[in-house]
Automatic annotation (TrEMBL):
Belongs to the UPF0102 family. HAMAP family: UPF0102 (MF_00048). It comes from Leptospira yanagawae. This is UPF0102 protein EHQ46_13475. Pfam families: UPF0102. Gene3D superfamilies: 3.40.1350.10. SUPFAM superfamilies: Restriction endonuclease-like.
Amino acid sequence: MNRVTMGKRGETLASEYLQSLGHTILFQNYRKRVGEIDIISLENGRLHCSEVKTWNESFGFFPLESLHATKRARMRKVYFYLLQEIPAFFHLTPSFNLIHITEKKEVRFYSSIF
């Protein structure tokens, strides 16, 4: 399976998982020139900005390591673009998350990691 197909399957599993937790999916693959947020969802007054990593342990390192300072800064910039486009979101508390999909299709959700 190629990376694109694997990534799309992972994002589908992540969206289904978030919905099972009561999230409303607002955007998938929200892109701006500075970066992208894989899934933006709403749950209990929180605006969740989630990065999805479909990761095989044989890749050699843990997915949290992929959220380096540059990636976190890009996600924040995209979040601020979203607030400019939809000012009604200003009152919501942001949560930047990682959703790790394992090769066994297990979902590991790390909420508010930065």
